[in-house]
Amino acid sequence: MVLLEVFFALTVLLFIITFFFYISRVREYSSIKSQYLIPIFIISLYAIFFANFRALTLEGIGASVNTILLSALSQLILLFSVFVFVKSFFLLEDKMLLEPLSRFTSKRGIDFKV
């Protein structure tokens, strides 16, 4: 049970770091350190999960409702963190804001004189 609680705390921490990374990418802040920290964190958590697969799944934690929910929630948060991290790299980089023409200019048209 202690391993499951530690795993849950680490997945919540990963989600918080990933969420702030996503926000920093949206606001176009430099987040180079997080860019390398998050994949290492994700790989480490998946390694912990697969190394302790029996202890972190239903077979090892018993049939308590609290432990089942904690296990499922930690796996869901880990999966969602990976999704948010990958999604943060596919944000639109170039944004152009074009102001619409005024009503007068659009009715009159543009005059080109040679």
Can you give a write-up of this model?
The protein has 6 helices and no strands. It has one domain (2-108). Helix 1 packs antiparallel against helix 2 and helix 1 runs parallel beside helix 5. It has helices spanning 2-26, 32-51, 53-56, 58-61, 65-87, 103-108. By secondary structure, it is an all-alpha fold.
Structural class by helix and strand composition: mainly alpha
Radius of gyration: 24 Å
Beta-strand share of residues: under 5%
Poorly predicted ranges? none
Average pLDDT across residues? 78
What spatial form do the alpha-carbon principal axes imply? elongated
* Sheet with the most strands, sense and barrel status: none
Gap between N and C termini: 82 Å
* Helical coverage, percent range: over 70%
- The number of distinct helices, counting runs of at least 4 residues, comes to 6
Tag the structure with descriptive keywords.
114 residues, mainly alpha, 6 helices, 72% helix, elongated
What is the element layout, followed by pairings?
Layout: H1 2-26, H2 32-51, H3 53-56, H4 58-61, H5 65-87, H6 103-108
Briefly summarize what is shown.
By secondary structure, this protein is mainly α. The protein has helices at residues 2-26, 32-51, 53-56, 58-61, 65-87, 103-108.
